[in-house]
From TrEMBL:
Protein name: Ferric uptake regulator, Fur family
Key words of the record: DNA-binding, Iron, Metal-binding, Repressor, Transcription, Transcription regulation, Zinc
Cofactor(s) needed by this chain: Mn(2+); Fe(2+); Zn(2+)
Organism superkingdom: Bacteria
Gene Ontology molecular function: DNA-binding transcription factor activity; transcription cis-regulatory region binding; zinc ion binding
Family according to the record: Belongs to the Fur family.
Amino acid sequence: MKAQKTRSQEKIFHLLKTLARSLSAQDLYVELRRRKQTIGLATVYRSLEALKLQGVVQVRTLPSGESLYSLVQQDQHHLTCVHCGQSIPIDECPVHDLEERLEQSHHFKVYYHTLEFFGLCDRCHSLHREPLSN
Ligand SMILES: [Zn+2]
Ligand SMILES: [Zn+2]
């Protein structure tokens, strides 16, 4: 099943592909405007929702509640610091094989998976540790 993308969806798809990172709808809106592409914020949200249903775009939700969108092909996981909010990308995907097994055993077409690690980054960890250690 292949749904036809609208022009707005195409623009957002190409922008996500070009930037190759996760962005919020607001960031995408700003980037599009910088590129002289006039798409309203409501249309950005609607297009992202449609692309998500097509299995093209995936969403990550940060501890702040902000949603970040990226293309599904980017099987990328992160270590996210709950204190300063920085996300550190990691290169490996430990569930890649599991995904293939599940597709076969459950006859389920997996579009994407999410896997997030939350905690304290090195810098925040040392800041937090000091008051406890004396
Ligand atoms: Zn941190
Ligand atoms: Zn993965």
